[in-house]
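Reviewers of the previous submission asked for a worked example of the structure-prediction workflow described in the proposal, so we include one complete record here. The input consisted solely of the amino acid sequence. No template or homolog information was supplied to the procedure at any stage.
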Amino acid sequence: MRRILQPVLILAFALSMTAVNAQEGEKTYNLKEGQVIDFLFLTRRQNSGEALNDYARQAISVARALDYKSLSGFDITRKPTQGNYYPEVLIFGGWPGDFQDRADALTALKEAVPDLNERRLDIWSRFDMTNYQLTEDKSFTVSYDKIQVLTAYWQKDAGLFAKFKREFLEKTKETGGIVKLELTDPRSPFGYDYTPEYTIITEWDNQAGFDAFLAKNLAMNHAGVKHVNQFYLTPPKPKK
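From that input alone, the workflow returned the following structure tokens.
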């Protein structure tokens, strides 16, 4: 059974729940310019509670001292619609500055916690990280009663891939989908590679709308695409 990782969202290196509720039934994610945003795709190991607590006391406290800010995330509880990857959670984190500043912060974190990678493997069986440098605000709001989907594409042919992306957006609009977030130019630290050339989060009013899109999406010409992962996202609701 898939677990909703509220403990990770609270403790792990990227997760105290700090997204803002725009109004009843909605959640806003604030991704601001002048930051490098971590996308962390995590799958937690069983019986890792003690290791997670130790990690929180050491690695996360150091990260916060380096100006890391947790920016909430999504649970991933439904079976993916495309691809070969099924993480349990997507977490957003923010670091001030550019890609070089992010690399410097990771170096400082590893110096303070020399066994950082080993500690992560005690907690998570998968720990994939994508970094995006933001030159503009990319804040967005989602509704709890709608369908959110993340799609990540790896490029095989630049020209065909550009055409594919345009068609993807056309099919999204045709079926009533709304683009919430688009990201390109990914980076990953050594040992954490997860760098799809195109990542997009979309939202549909209902399952039927997304199903109509998915049928069109799967029928598209994928000649310019190397690989895809696509899965539903579930915004965690605030505790009452």
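Residues 1-22 have pLDDT under 50 and may be disordered. We consider this example representative of the routine output the project will generate in years two and three.
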